[in-house]
Design brief:
The protein is of the alpha/beta class. 53% of the residues lie in helices and 10% in strands. The longest helix has 38 residues. The chain is elongated and about 85 Å long.
Length: 201
Amino acid sequence: MIVKYGYVRVSTKDQNENRQLEAMKQLEILKKNIYVEKISGKDFDRPIYQKLVKKLRPDDLLYIKSIDRLGRNYEEILEQWRILTKEKKVDIVVLDMPLLDTRRGKDLIGTFLSDIVLQVLSFVAENERSNIKQRQAEGIAIAKARGVRFGRPPKPLPSNFYKIYQKWKEGKITGVVAADACGMPVSTFLYKARAYEKVEK
């Protein structure tokens, strides 16, 4: 008996997986056979995915919404596809790309066409990931050039910082005592002190 499985993946916990889940439900896949993972697709070292692969048996049927839900690394997608179809002997259906349905065209030409489509789509998925990273890096660089600060804004110095700094600078108190008086770690006090000295010069 053929058992149907679904693999659903989003890259972060903030992303919504409902669109993929709805597609799986319409295929009448049992809830226990839908494996949902919220993790990056940069590699296949994913606990839920690995659990699914161990569960699969020959002639089982695996549904994926789109090829980039399987993964984002071109070579690794091809390798996983080989493992699933050749070693595990399961069929795969990529819902967004009907040509990627291993149940169809199992003759030489069908397999050849499927392999070509898979390679093209895998390349496109990885290329898009690279483009996104490049656009992010360029956007950050432009924002920094415009003076946009990233991360949390620095806390203002405590009102007694100057007096404490002077005592520390004159050797009247240690760095530990000075940091404690300012309510901050020693490393933070020393960093703030060095920054203050640069401003004063």
